[in-house]
Write a sequence for this structure.
């Protein structure tokens, strides 16, 4: 509150908002149970948002439902999962709305209606048309991650974005057919079968100065099993920094 930020926790329901507000109050944290967030402070709202985001220029921090409630999210809300590396678009960024296509984020706007006053993300489209997306529907937006060239803005209600999505679907369908044929051909191929470990191999492994982790040992065993088979091996081994690869 002292920093001037509004922190909105989207709880995914009125009961959860009330319960979280009470729990935070018990810990000495004031978080008002309300969907009308006017002044700086913390709020427990009833909306649903998979993951949160921060708009520093607007001094707005929205905490997603799944950021707070690790389990028990109502199934009706979990229609699809987004990658955890999702980048919330910021003011001035190009963003893609899952229905209307590419627009530019112009900022936040507070709008009053019969349902109360809420904050909306303002998107500008072709022809200067504006679309206002409620903050609880931010999961419908993704930051534009195309080429370095400036993207063309779509027109609200136009058919262009639908045509683009259809072309992408057709391209993916063709790619799927090609991949299926590729894997069919690979499955029919006969590969080279290596012989099982012998005494020299075991002696070489015993000279390794470090003890394998459980995951390393499992990976080695699985790869050896594949190599001893006549089936063409199709395996990718990944290791993150700090995980003993």
């Amino acid at each position: 509150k002292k920093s001037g930020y509004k922190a909105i926790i989207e709880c995914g329901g009125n009961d959860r908002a009330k319960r979280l507000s009470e729990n935070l109050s018990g810990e000495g944290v004031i978080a008002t149970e309300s969907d009308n967030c006017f002044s700086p402070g913390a709020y427990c709202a009833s909306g649903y948002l998979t993951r949160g985001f921060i708009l520093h220029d607007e001094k707005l921090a929205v905490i997603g439902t799944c950021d707070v409630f690790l389990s028990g999210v109502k199934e009706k809300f979990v229609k699809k999962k987004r990658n955890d590396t999702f980048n919330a678009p910021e003011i001035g960024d190009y963003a893609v709305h899952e229905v209307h296509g590419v627009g530019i984020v112009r900022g936040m706007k507070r709008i009053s209606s019969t349902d109360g006053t809420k904050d909306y993300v303002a998107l500008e489209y072709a022809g200067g048309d504006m679309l206002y997306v409620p903050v609880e529907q931010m999961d419908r937006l993704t930051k534009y991650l195309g080429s370095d060239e400036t993207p063309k803005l779509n027109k609200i209600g136009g058919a262009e974005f639908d045509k683009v999505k259809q072309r992408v679907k057709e391209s993916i369908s063709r790619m799927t057919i090609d991949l299926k044929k590729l894997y069919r051909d690979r499955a029919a191929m006969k590969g080279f079968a290596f012989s099982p470990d012998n005494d020299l191999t075991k002696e070489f492994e015993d000279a390794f100065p470090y003890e394998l982790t459980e995951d390393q040992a499992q990976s080695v065993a699985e790869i050896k099993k594949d190599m001893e088979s006549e089936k063409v091996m199709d395996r990718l081994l990944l290791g993150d920094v700090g995980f003993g690869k």
